[in-house]
Amino acid sequence: MSMPTTADDTRLGEGPLQAVGDVRLPPAGSTPRQEACKQCRARHVKCDRVKVCCGACSRLSFHCSFGGPSENPEPDSSTLSHPSLLTQAGTKRKRVQSACLPCRKVKAKCSGDEPCARCRCRGIQCVRSEDSNTQNQQPAEPLQHLGFTFSSAPPPSSAIALDKVTMRQYIEAYFAMTNPSTCIFLHRPTVLADWSRGRLNTLLQTALCASGMRLLALRTRNMIPRGKATARAWMQRVQTSVLMDVKKQSMDQLQILVLIIQFHFFEDEIAEAWNLLSLAARLAFTLGLNEEHEDSDPVVQESRRRLIWAVYLLDRMFSGGIEDLAVCPVNRLRIRLPCDDRSFQRGISSRAEYLDDTLHPTQTDRSHMDLLAYHTRLAATRDRILSYTKHVRREGLSPVASKNQLETLQTELQHFEETLPEDLRLNSERLLLMAQSSDSGAYVLLHTHWLQCHCDLYRFLIPGIRESVNKADIEATPPDFVEFCQKACLSKAIQLCELWSEIADVEFCQPIEDFFLSISIYQVAQIVHHLHHLLPRQGSHSLGSLKTKLEKALQVVSFLQTHFPRGARCFVDTEHLVQTLGHSGSSTGSESEDQDHRYHLTSKHSLIPKIWEQTDAAKPDDDIALRILGEPALSASVKRVGREIASLPGAAPQLGSLSQIPNAMGAEGMSPVFGGHEGFIQWDPFDMQLNDYHDPQLGGFGLSFPS
């Protein structure tokens, strides 16, 4: 029996339906309509409904729901736990690495890694914007062989969302992997105890995790871009909070600030570290860290000492012997040198010497000193050497006129070497033993610094190098004195070549992560290049032999070029110099660069920022992000904070980023104008009437305030 057909039973393009029981079937001979696959329906695109795998899924390598895998099957969205990897339709997001700023500017192809191949080849700073770093950040995979896990970007607060196990691993990594010569001022047992009880400052905790993650990223090379980007984001968040509450004056605030500065320094963000250092130095003296407090707990007292010594070491690295640029006056540091790490960790009262070892000889004991104390003392000697040689060059004096001062500094270097304990002396046997120690890097750097100090002291009579006096002063100097200085400088340069050659032949337990080593290799190559006529033709000290040793030295620091953009530039310059060693027609490129900065007399690859004139005649291809020593541009978060501060009532109308503060010069480049306020008094760190460093003999502060 047939059922009547109604209008509702007729569809467009189809015949009347037949009913079997309660189920309606299409008429015999018709083809049933097929739905699109799940992927095409989710993406709202047309599906050709081809069995096994539709055309759209095949073209995009998706796993088609029709049942047939594509040639490159896409993993199911359920396996992609991180939502940033999925589109709204649940398919995998196909992202490409954003180009860095230098490549984007010239529209060149960028490899996407950090630093990219083009920047690494040219030895320039590889800068990426905050947006590109955030966009390309992927969820981390666990480092099972180290037991560490990289977390994704932090939440929008000063605290970071990590489980306690991972957070402890990052904090432990900071204490375990930080170079001892960096001056670790935090007491590990106290920090871990406060952290476990929830009493550790949140910003300090985040700064420690960021520092630990950066060190882990360096040791685990396949995680460098992801780990460094996350660590940088955390540290920028801490810096934002500190600068928003800059009025706060406490030990926690200073500790966080120094961690930020050290992080910027090792990330080659010199301009930010440079400007923040003056703030840290002022705060350290305000808190009275430059004085001994005998009634304090030994742990607290040593932590206070190490904190201001960390500021001092950074200051001496930055100022380069120029007193006008120093912000931590050494004559005001009336405290002991850092004690040995064993005494610090166990809370034993320090009996370490003072910077001047003639002070309080009956109250000191050299057995309480280790590599950090001697490194600090040598930094003061090197600062005096650089100050002396730059004074001679600046005043246009013949070096022979200051021969007595030169001999005094040489005696000081000799005395330093004689006072070293036996286990810190330099010899081949000791080098083999120290190579497997956690202090191996600090040991090598100590003796590299000591030998380099001799080169710095005598190199001003080597014609052709950037650090020499002018030609007229060399001609006015007795030839025997010129020959003495040149041979003394060359002798120590040869010893450095031999030291680095031995290091290359010894398998160290950890790499030497210090940019100063790259600078020293470049300086030694300069000395050998300009004094090759004094070398023997044959033997271990011949030009060919020294060239081989310098090539080995480059192998020691080769990994630095992938971690530090400044190290990459120095490596490229040194490599070129070593290849042309001894060729009279080759140019080292140091004689004509930046010679307009006569007053600072900076060496090549110096840490002193170069202040470029902001004029309309600036080169059109100058990259603003690379104008100050090629440091990376500030992140968007810090720039945003600057705009927020500028919008506050009473704020300066033009408060820029930290790296722009040195460029705030007046119209004639003489009187600084800050934020558009003329008559602004420039801060002088040595103006005692304004700065008023704490002096206990005055019973407080020198300035009187109305009651």
TrEMBL record:
Keyword Calcium among UniProt keywords = no
Q: Where does this polypeptide localize? A: Nucleus
Give the organism, scientific name. Pseudomassariella vexata
> Which SMART domains does the UniProt entry name for this protein?
Fungal_trans, GAL4
The question of whether Nucleus is a record keyword is answered with yes
A single Gene Ontology CC annotation of this entry is: nucleus
Which InterPro entries does the annotation name? Answer: TF_fung, XnlR_reg_dom, Zn2-C6_fun-type_DNA-bd_sf, Zn2Cys6_DnaBD
Q: Which residue ranges traverse the bilayer?
A: none
Specify where the region named Disordered lies, as residue ranges.
1-33, 71-90
Tell me what this protein is called: Fungal-specific transcription factor domain-domain-containing protein
- One Pfam match, by short name? Fungal_trans
